[in-house]
Amino acid sequence: MKDFQRKRVYDADADVSDGKLFTFAGVGLYVQRVLRSKWWQKRCAIREIELSTKTGIWYDADRKSSKRGFIRIAQKDEGSWTERDIVHELAHVFCKPSKDPDNNHGRHWARAYYDLTRRYRGKQVARELVAAFLKHGVRCEPPPNLKELF
Question: How many domains does the chain have?
Fold first, then answer.
């Protein structure tokens, strides 16, 4: 199945600030902070995420356990993983990847990405993301309530 919004999402991502830079260990701490939060636990069954640097950025849900997920992050210079990239990948785990393209970069994934951005990166960055979604034609379902950002 085709991932119809992928290029639009990547173009929109380029318009959103990177945020903090993290070492590999810092990525793990950031992910653990999100997974332990009440917000995440109320909305997602995934409780453990394995980080790996094997083959670029990649995400998956563990086929044997509904409580595990995986994120593989590209090998980069130490300290060059961005907060934006981490939240992007967490949105994939949140949506539990499947053959349904809407879970990859579709409308529901875009909403999860927005919600995670607003919750963990703040309203200002969420406003940047909404503006970038509008500029690049990224569809989001349900659409964000713009009143909550201002």
Answer: 1
Q: Are 114 and 140 in contact (CB under 8 A)?
A: yes
Structural domain boundaries enclosing 127? 6-149
Q: What is the pLDDT of residues 106-119, one digit of tens each?
A: 888 899 999 999 99
The model carries a pTM of 0.83
pLDDT digits (tens, 9 = 90+) for 77-95: 666 788 998 899 889 888 8
Is the residue at 1 inside a domain? no
Tell whether 73 is covered by a domain. yes
Secondary structure of residue 117 in the 3-state scheme: helix
Distance, CA of 108 to CA of 104 (rounded, Å) = 9
